[in-house]
Amino acid sequence: MKLSLASLKDATAWKGYELPAFDVQAVAEKTKAAPTWLHFGAGNLFRAFQAAVAQRLIENGDMDTGIITCESYDDEIVTKCFHKVDNLTVAVTLEADGRIEKQVIGSVAETTTLLHDLDRVREIFAAPSLQMVSFTITEKGYSLRNAKQELVPVVAEDMKNGPAQAKSFMAQLATLLLHRMHNCGKPLAMVSMDNCSHNGAKLQGAIMEIVDAWKKNGLVTAEEYAYLTEQVTFPWSMIDKITPRPAPEIADQLEADGLEDMHPFVTSKNTYIAPFVNAERPQYLVIENDFPNGRPPLDKCGVIFTDRDTVNKVEMMKVCTCLNPPQTALAVYGCLLGYTSIAKEVQDHELYTLIDRMCHIEGMPVVVNPGVLSPQAFLDEVFETRLPNPFIPDTPQRIATDTSQKVSIRFGNAIKNYDAMGKASELTYIPLVLAGWLRYLLAVDDEGKAFECSADPLLASLQEKLSGITLGNPDDAAVAKVRPILSDAAIFGIDLAACGLADKVIGYWKEMMAGPGAIRATLKKYTA
Predict the structure, then answer these.
(1) pLDDT tier for residue 107 given thresholds of 50, 70 and 90
(2) How far apart are CA 28 and CA 20, in angstroms?
(3) Cβ contact 17:104 at 8 Å
(4) Measuring CA to CA, how many Å separate 503 from each of 133, 298, 339, 467?
(5) Which residues touch 64 (CB under 8 Å, ≥6 apart)?
(6) Mean pLDDT of all residues in the chain?
(7) Interior CA angle at 430 toward 350 and 312, to 5°?
(8) Please, are residues 290 and 189 in contact by the beta-carbon 8 Å criterion?
(9) How many CB atoms lie within 10 A of CB 351?
(10) Chain CA centroid to CA 426, Å
(11) What span, in angstroms and rounded, lies between the C-alpha atoms of 303 and 298?
């Protein structure tokens, strides 16, 4: 049996699956005629979270339209996945007790790509009914610059040439907004739902940097500039749901149920995709309530709407204390100790003790309490349900991706708080994680075997700075290569030497460099 609209007509063939409780085709037609929600980035998180929320709202009678998606980066997500299954998805929820919930998601009404469907996307942007354009394109999707902080050539060309010849994604978004202005004039909310701090500001900053260049070069009118600055909003949000790559073992289970062609594949742009998604049940979405043309009633399905300051506090709570720091600690040490499962790592006494003490002893005293969510309850769920879930096929290798871009927010803010109290040098577990990351950069595990570090924009430059260092008792020359890195506030959010932590990090690092088995010995020493 294929995943298709035709197969949904025989409900008896879908034993054990929750099917859409509405006419999928009728909702799709209504959505195409009067779209309210357009989403860029139709990957795994979107299908497991936003599309599932939209489905619930449709089934409850709170919405009568679905979501239109547009892929701006990897067209094969649409052409080789969505189009082959009539825009449906099987959402598999993996409970910590082993139960599996399987739901067919039919809320995605239309799938498009900027490459092939630009005219249609322009029509959608011009629709007066459109209330929200949302994004899950990863933090890198908003960047206009390369690792050297130079404008990438296509962006520089767009700034010079103006809206009519826009080629980069952020310039194309600005052009689409101008198209809306000239065709319906209605305001619009552009909502980043990416898992990064100040995501709305990142989206707004990228678009407006290009628009400011157009203004300077006389390529937009005063009226156009006023529309983009006064009628378009960029609400901040915090999103949280662990959605690993689709797992082959889940595909096996779905195919055992009788479904065909469920196995994941990798696109030419290295996206891991499948006609299904697998994810945990816990999920959080908090959004700044700034929607000038109305909004979908997401609050009826658990989404929290609040002010920008509260959104920022929720993000800080999650990213600086309750979820992301222990994830990064497990990612770094998991790679060093040969783990391929986050859940397995949580069963490791030393690793569990490390993250437990880091969060409860060092993190919670300086946690940001947003009011709308309890930090303690959130942290309890992370330790008791989310990280230990053996059925979530998440890996330290995945989470270790782009670590250099994460340490400043995940650890730097806590260090700054302790530094303000004059107590940064008293920290133990946060600097132990940072030392573990420096050890990780050598790409040699605790057995002395080489491994491949996860992708990171600073990986090559950092490894070059550490070149020549080999496993064994490091000498003064090796330490001299490490010390400047620790003073780089762009990486850590603070100069670790200035706040008195550099020597402690170096001390831990030297212990872990002593030879094979030294990482485990160091962890045992400081978690005893």
Answers:
(1) very high
(2) 13
(3) yes
(4) 47, 49, 29, 20
(5) 27, 30, 58
(6) 96
(7) 120
(8) yes
(9) 21
(10) 32
(11) 6
